[in-house]
Amino acid sequence: MASSEEDGSGNGSVEEKENGKKRSLGALATAWLIFYNIAMTAGWLVLGIAMARFYIQRGTHRGLFRSVQKILKFFQTFALLEVVHCAVVHTSVLVTGVQVSSRIFMVWFIAHSIKQIQNEESVILFLVVWTVTEITRYSFYTFNLLNHLPYFIKWARYNFFIILYPAGVAGELLTIYAALPYVKKTGMYSLRLPNKYNVSFDYYYFLIIVMFSYIPLFPQLYLHMLRQRRKVLHGEVIVEKDD
Ligand SMILES: CCCCCCCCCCCCC[C@@H](O)CC(=O)SCCNC(=O)CCNC(=O)[C@H](O)C(C)(C)COP(=O)(O)OP(=O)(O)OC[C@H]1O[C@@H](n2cnc3c(N)ncnc32)[C@H](O)[C@@H]1OP(=O)(O)O
């Protein structure tokens, strides 16, 4: 088992693959990505430590979301930059866009907006899953950019998701499900006719549609990660369609 990987250009920039060819990432882009990935690894580590401390000190998950929400909101919202990064790294805008938007939606339009569900166990489930995933993922990118990638981080990046992805999705779906009665009762974020715009919108049914949208979308994200796993861990050459 190799302890590290060395395949960078070694000239202050990092080479990325595009359509089987190598494309050079400029020094500025490399420096920015190293900074971004270190900041994100640190942010999610701080979140993980804050959650562990809260649970050890209080012995309950009640109030945990409230106590860590600022860190979560900051770093998860910061991840919107990943859609911009697609212009320079070899990754899909579509896959990244779905992944990031579903997380932003969970943080701001579910957990932040509906205080009544913040103490659900399912919230803790997706928080723990996201935290483990992101510490692994961002440290993977950081070490990769520095051309010193410990094998166990690479292994963790492309194996943990097999369990964590379904667990995270379960946490998210159960949380949205728990929010439904409150949303129905209050009519929050809904627009009823008649109104001056002459449009109606029902957040309750929107949430049901979001839940059903996991059925076609999640398997595609999961299969994408399985393909990445085969490519990175087993060296398979995979030809992917453009977005
Ligand atoms: C408005 C309402 C919206 C509602 C939508 C509802 C949709 C519901 C369906 C969605 C369900 C998602 C649920 C989700 O939130 C649950 C969880 O996340 S649970 C936690 C477990 N999850 C995971 O483990 C998966 C995490 N997701 C991913 O990893 C993603 O697929 C993605 C973030 C998109 C990463 O995929 P990517 O294809 O980029 O894979 P790689 O990591 O292998 O990277 C490919 C190459 O790009 C380089 N790269 C990418 N980012 C960086 C970076 N920041 N810095 C440096 N380099 C980067 C990477 O090195 C690879 O390069 P190369 O191929 O050359 O080696």
From TrEMBL:
Main location: endoplasmic reticulum
Purpose of the protein: Catalyzes the third of the four reactions of the long-chain fatty acids elongation cycle. This endoplasmic reticulum-bound enzymatic process, allows the addition of two carbons to the chain of long- and very long-chain fatty acids/VLCFAs per cycle. This enzyme catalyzes the dehydration of the 3-hydroxyacyl-CoA intermediate into trans-2,3-enoyl-CoA, within each cycle of fatty acid elongation. Thereby, it participates to the production of VLCFAs of different chain lengths that are involved in multiple biological processes as precursors of membrane lipids and lipid mediators.
Stated family: Belongs to the very long-chain fatty acids dehydratase HACD family.
Entry keyword annotation includes Transmembrane helix: yes
Name listed for the protein in its UniProt record: Very-long-chain (3R)-3-hydroxyacyl-CoA dehydratase
One of the record's GO molecular function terms: very-long-chain (3R)-3-hydroxyacyl-CoA dehydratase activity
Taxonomic source organism: Gallus gallus
This protein's pathway: Lipid metabolism; fatty acid biosynthesis
Enzyme superclass (EC): lyase
Localization in the cell: Endoplasmic reticulum membrane; Membrane
A Pfam family reported for this protein in Swiss-Prot or TrEMBL: PTPLA
GO biological process: fatty acid biosynthetic process
GO CC term (a single one): endoplasmic reticulum membrane
Keyword terms of this UniProt record: Endoplasmic reticulum, Fatty acid biosynthesis, Fatty acid metabolism, Lipid biosynthesis, Lipid metabolism, Lyase, Membrane, Transmembrane, Transmembrane helix
Membrane topology label: Multi-pass membrane protein
Membrane-spanning residues: 33-56, 158-183, 203-223
Encoding gene (name): HACD1
EC code(s) of this entry: 4.2.1.134
Reactions the enzyme catalyzes: (3R)-hydroxyhexadecanoyl-CoA = (2E)-hexadecenoyl-CoA + H2O; a very-long-chain (3R)-3-hydroxyacyl-CoA = a very-long-chain (2E)-enoyl-CoA + H2O
Highest taxon, organism lineage: Eukaryota
